[in-house]
Amino acid sequence: MSVALDQALYSTLTADTGAGGVNNATTGATGGFHNPVAPQAAGFPRMHFIELTSTALYSLRNLLADHCYYQISAFAVDGQSEGVATAKSLIERAKVLLTDPSMTVTGKTLLFCRYERIIPTPPEWDAANNKYIHSQGMILEVWLA
Q1: CA distances from 101 to 7, 59, 140 (A)
Q2: Which of 2, 79, 128, 134 has the fewest CB atoms within 10 Å, i.e. the most exposed one?
Q3: In a 3-state reduction of DSSP, which class is residue 87?
């Protein structure tokens, strides 16, 4: 869709610093928020978000709305309150946080923002560090005018 929506999502996620927040200094995504790929040295737990698709709704020659889908994913490793639970709790909090948020998207009006579905994924084995990387994700649907 645009850099504006990427920035709005990033700002919303990083502003959630309270108890149970996705950016809480001790229980949140201390490895950061990345669009779409984290740097090699980024720690865990962390969150990634990426635009999956965006379509426009027109009336003759006028753009009426943008319809976007984003994937939000949380990654955690064993030994961090056990990775699978951490990844799930981060996504559950993001689901609440991004359901009809008071989010400002520069140059647009937010009409609708809700999670569409949860995406469970199997863990991946990190042989170099002898640990599992667990992830949990969701698809977010956004309408902008």
Answers
A1: 14, 27, 12
A2: 128
A3: helix
Among 144, 139, 55, 56, CA closest to 103:
144
pLDDT attached to residue 121: 84
87 forms beta bridges with none
Per-domain residue ranges of the chain: 3-144
Instruction: Give pLDDT tens digits along the chain (145 positions).
Output: 589 999 999 999 999 999 999 999 999 999 999 999 999 999 999 999 999 999 999 998 899 999 999 999 999 998 766 889 999 999 999 999 999 999 999 999 999 999 999 998 889 999 988 999 999 999 999 999 9
Q: How far is CA 129 from the centre of its chain?
A: 25
CA 118 to chain CA centroid, Å, is 12
Report the CATH architecture of 3-144.
Answer: 2-Layer Sandwich (3.30)
Residue with tokens 């379509």: 55
Residues 72, 82: Cα–Cα separation, whole Å: 20
β-pairing, 62-77 vs 46-59, is: antiparallel
Of 10, 28, 14, residue with least CA distance to 89: 28
Q: Which helix (H) or strand (E) holds 73?
A: strand 62-77
